């Protein structure tokens, strides 16, 4: 790996890792929500989980590829993660509470990356 590639990966690695963790946690939460008895009450949550899964994957991909748009994508990722966290916090099951915390962590790290 060239030095330039290593430098951008070093700079983005923490954010890539938390985006991947958030994507995985949202996938788990989505599956769990779809099997809850009150699934109809979770429509907004499910929609935001899908958005969060997609934007986290895209953010990690853009950072890994050193895209000039990585910061803009990560800024949007932070917004979506925050919205997902707010929605997940409405439900008291462990999977939603854990997902909300990971989403908050991801939003924070994405904002740090954007400002860095």
Please indicate the percent range of residues in DSSP E strands (runs of 2 or more).
Answer: under 5%
The domain count comes to 1
Distance between the termini: 23 Å
Largest sheet geometry: none
InterPro entries: Csp_YhjQ (IPR005560), YHJQ-like (IPR044543)
Would you write up a description of this structure?
By secondary structure, the protein is mainly α. 82% of the residues lie in helices and 0% in strands. Helix 2 (43-64) packs antiparallel against helix 3.
Considering the chains and any ligands shown, give keywords for the structure.
about 120 residues, mainly alpha, Substrate Binding Domain Of Dnak, Chain:A, Domain 2, about 80% helix, elongated, Csp_YhjQ, YHJQ-like
What's the gist of this structure?
It contains four helices and no strands. The chain is mainly alpha-helical and 116 residues long.
């Amino acid at each position: 790996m060239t030095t330039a590639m290593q430098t951008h990966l070093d700079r983005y690695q923490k954010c890539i890792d938390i985006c991947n963790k958030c994507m995985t946690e949202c996938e788990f939460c989505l599956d769990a929500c779809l099997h809850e008895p009150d699934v109809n009450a979770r429509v907004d949550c499910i929609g935001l989980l899908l958005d969060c899964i997609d934007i986290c994957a895209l953010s990690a991909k853009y950072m890994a590829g050193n895209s000039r748009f990585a910061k803009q994508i990560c800024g949007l990722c932070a917004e979506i993660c925050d919205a997902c966290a707010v929605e997940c916090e409405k439900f008291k099951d462990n999977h939603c509470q854990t997902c909300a915390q990971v989403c908050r962590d991801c939003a924070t790290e994405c904002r740090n990356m954007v400002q860095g």
